[in-house]
Design a protein that fits this description.
Layout (H helix, E strand, L loop, with lengths): L5 H10 L2 H14 L6 E5 L5 H10 L4 E6 L2 H10 L6 E5 L12 E7 L8 H11 E12 L5 E3 L3 H14 L5 H12 L1 E8 L2 E3 L7 H12 L2 H16 L4 E4 L1 E8 L1
Parallel strand pairs: 1-2, 1-4, 2-3, 4-5
Antiparallel strand pairs: 5-10, 6-9, 7-10, 8-9
Helix pairs in contact: 1-8, 5-7, 6-9, 8-9
Length: 251
């Protein structure tokens, strides 16, 4: 999945919510970027996390972000324009145009599950990391996502289309062997649950609902959004999601 055009705008709106701001704090805690370090972010999106990494590593470090989407890279460059030591470039996580063993840490937040070949991307990330470097991966177990509000008849085609758009919908459950094969050692996994009961623009639910509607057939997407709005108006909306934060070390 490429976040361009409408999808890029929705992702950028989602990134600005309180829910994702809390996720970024958790990622930064695990990543622990230090002054002078070189840190890679694959799938940097609009650059909100990249900006924080750039501030943490300082002017003598490097926060290097890549993304497939030119729309996202343009947004990331605007977001980080005043931060020295930040670089945002179009790039593919599965084919990094970077030297071996040059980064002290790397992060991929909601990226690897969208790739057709996650094994290749993980091997590439490991290649550009120094031995002992930290890697943080955030991905959702999509089978744990739950929506209450739309009827099953309305929800089914949207959920099916969304599931089909994510090649590895339960990546955290399968990530351990993938990391080991790519050259990573000790790891730990922690959940970062989200629970929304309203369509406030500062929450994940409305943005996720719109993004899912974009992947569905138009009539199904419209019916889905109408049902979501009706459930919200009736005080019956409930959405929960459980992303898993995985931290590993390059060996």
């Amino acid at each position: 999945m490429e976040f361009t055009g409408i999808s890029a705008g929705l992702q950028q709106g989602m990134a600005a919510t309180r829910d994702l701001a809390q996720r970024r704090l958790a990622i930064l805690h695990e990543l622990s970027p230090r002054r002078g370090e070189r840190v890679l972010e694959t799938g940097c999106g609009a650059g909100l996390l990249l900006r924080e990494i750039g501030l943490a590593v300082g002017p003598h470090g490097l926060a290097h972000g890549i993304d497939l989407s030119p729309d996202q890279i343009a947004a990331a460059r605007r977001t980080t324009a005043e931060i020295p030591g930040v670089r945002a470039e179009e790039g593919d996580a599965a084919r990094l145009d970077l030297p071996d063993a040059v980064f002290d840490a790397a992060v991929a937040a909601h990226v690897i599950e969208y790739l057709d070949a996650p094994h290749t991307a993980l091997a590439e990330i490991r290649r550009v990391l120094k031995p002992g470097a930290r890697f943080v991966c955030l991905a959702t177990n999509w089978d744990s996502d739950f929506w209450h509000g739309p009827s099953s008849e309305i929800a089914a085609p949207v959920l099916a289309a969304w599931r089909a758009a994510v090649p590895w919908p339960n990546l955290p459950a399968r990530l351990g062997p993938m990391l080991q094969a790519a050259g990573f050692g000790a790891r730990r996994q922690v959940p970062l649950p989200v629970v929304n009961t309203a369509l406030s623009e500062d929450l994940l639910a409305p943005w996720m609902a719109r993004l899912m509607a974009e992947t569905a057939p138009p009539d199904a997407g419209r019916a889905w959004l109408e049902a979501i709005a009706e459930a919200d108006a009736a005080g019956e909306l409930f959405f929960t999601s459980v992303p898993i934060l995985t931290t590993a070390v390059a060996v």
